[in-house]
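task queued by scheduler; priority normal; single chain, no ligands, no partner chains; default sampling; output format set to structure tokens
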Amino acid sequence: MKKTILILLVILISGALFATPEIGIPYMNKPTIDGKIDANEWQGASRVTGFHLLGGKSLEPNKSVVYVGYDDENFYLAYRFYGPSKPKGVDKGKAGAYWEDDTLEFFFNADEKEALYYQFLLNCSGGYAVFGYNTTGENVNGVGGKAVDLDALYKTYISPAYSDLVPPVDALWWEGEISVSWKSLKFSPQAGDRGFLFLTRDNVSPEYYNSDYGYAESTFHEKDKYSTIHFLKDTAVARMDIDSYDKFEIFNPTGEDWVVNIKSSVVIDGEVQKTFEDKVKIPKGGVVDYSLNDEFPKSIFKLITEIVDDKGFLLTKAESDIFNVDLFSYNYDREKDKIIVNFNFTGAPVKENPYVDMRLMKDSDMLVGFMINVTEDKRFRTFEIDMSPYPKGNYTLFCKGVVNITETITK
């Protein structure tokens, strides 16, 4: 008897046109800056994910998640970067070249009327630097690029799972938290104020790449790719789901019921093919997990989603090109006692030769492992796993990378 399972995956990829996303920056309770993200402390923050490789050609191979918020005293940002190898970096002082390390960079302007903006570089070891620029991109400190001295607190934490012999992929991450005082930024944000924020990742281990949340083409200094931010207060908060780009978590920290308006459009070749709108009521203090819950076309398309509250505040705007296709299938042939796994990227416009880390596990032990590179000349790959050496029981087949699945196989 054969058991065959097809997994339908929604993969974000490149497209001819990209629009910069927009991010609502909510007023939140003050978190403890200790380098460790506490879900309760950051519940009131916005959350974004879905970084693309520099050039906007494909989704980055390792997941990046960023949280942002503010209160009367500080701007707050936290991030968690996933990756198969322990991050590398050292403290280089307040003017260090941290782009040579595993680093989060972000470009930040809190006031669109102000010419000055800042580049923050935060590496995995707790080292950081801040540089100031004017609207032309010229370093305001002149030749030598001396760092701007801001009142900031930055801490990092690296998952201890990197020391495990066979760690779960989802346990391999490092994270950081930073607070920057408004007093040192000489700004006091009010609800409705606008600025910009550009989130980027410098990844050096085990492979070097640059990725960003904003579709930069060749450099992180392309200001037209920076996300517009909106400061919010006393309103709901829309947060992107970490793993599914058509899902959102909407949190209402206020003392009254709140209604948000959700509008999504499917665009193919520049033409809107379908638009769906919805109103969602979030009870005071409540959280609603919202899915677009719509049947998407089996093709390449652009998905544009805006979430706006009843007062007209834009909570988030996410725009991504999506390739909707069956990429993965497997079956367990009990007669031959083999698992046959197929990856089919035929016709998929994936330019960056993505990889898949596939493993067969028994409890915490890895029995079989493949690192699969999908190249231009090898779009269809088949792998067989011989199960005859293994006793009866439950096994876990999982893949991470461009394809992300976890399946239990019973022998």
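post-processing summary
- The longest helix spans residues 182-185.
- Confidence is low (pLDDT under 50) at residues 1-18, 141-145.
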